[in-house]
Amino acid sequence: MSVTPLPRGPEDEQREAPERPPRRSPPPAPGRAPSLLDSFNYAFEGIIHVLRTQRNLRIHFLAAALVFGGAIALGVTRLQLIALVLAIAFVLVAEMLNTAIEGVIDVSTTSFDPNAKLAKDIAAGAVLIAAISAVAVAYLVFESAAGHRTTNLLDQVRKGPAEITLVALVLVVLLVIATKAWTGSGTPLRGGLPSGHAALAFAAWIAVTYLVGDEHRFVVSSLTLIMALLVAQTRVESGIHSALEVAYGGALGALTTLVVFQLIG
User: Fold this and answer.
1) What are the domain boundaries of the chain?
2) Known catalytic residue at 95
3) What one-character-per-residue DSSP string does the chain give?
4) Which residue out of 11, 95, 143, 215 is catalytically annotated?
5) What pTM was estimated for this model as a whole?
6) pLDDT tens figures, 193-240
């Protein structure tokens, strides 16, 4: 008695197909130094590998793209652009060296070693110092280039028609209710739509921005926005909310506070 095998579908073939390793340039022949082209290939392979495997470097690259875009839009001077380039390159190089050090330590040790942990911590600390320095440089550049523009824009938004903001607020609320009814996730005080913590954090950001005087508005508003973003990040990373729920909560809190200031202003 023979058994006829079931027909194989494309999903079965994909499941059994071995995972293809990333393409790598072949090493140079023994006794021969790599050519100039080989050296560039190895360098680009290292950059691509770090981008594929290291989340922090992808975040740094995204932040660098946003910074360069903002610098071009604001028309910063050549010296300010040079300072931004050097600060960003400092962070990227430090992050890649940190990854290389961690890889070497992982290869050379097979068990927990306090000295290996200390070396990794020192390398991570170097990245942190580079990132803090880059943030300081970016603030000094954008504070002089965008401080007055940001203050004038915020004042214009506050003096704008409250009806426009009310329409935007109602639209956000309707989207929140519709998504909540569609997903049916979370409870009124934990999880689900919207994120109350994000709503409160971004409401505080808008309130502080309008309550602080013009002289220190940019720096105080920037610090408050960073704290609001950190609150949103912790809600997502802890698994309590999704990114969409946090975005709804932040928009709801910010628009509600903006409506209040427009009506009482």
Assistant:
1) 40-146, 160-265
2) yes
3) ---PPPPPPHHHHHHHSPPPPPP-PPPPPTT-PPPHHHHHHHHHHHHHHHHHH-HHHHHHHHHHHHHHHHHHHHT--HHHHHHHHHHHHHHHHHHHHHHHHHHHHHHH-SS--HHHHHHHHHHHHHHHHHHHHHHHHHHHHHHHHHHHHHHHHHHHHHHS-HHHHHHHHHHHHHHHHHHHHHH--S-SSSSSSS-HHHHHHHHHHHHHHHHS-GGGHHHHHHHHHHHHHHHHHHHHHTTSS-HHHHHHHHHHHHHHHHHHHHHH-
4) 95
5) 0.56
6) 677 778 878 888 887 777 776 666 777 777 888 888 888 888 888 887
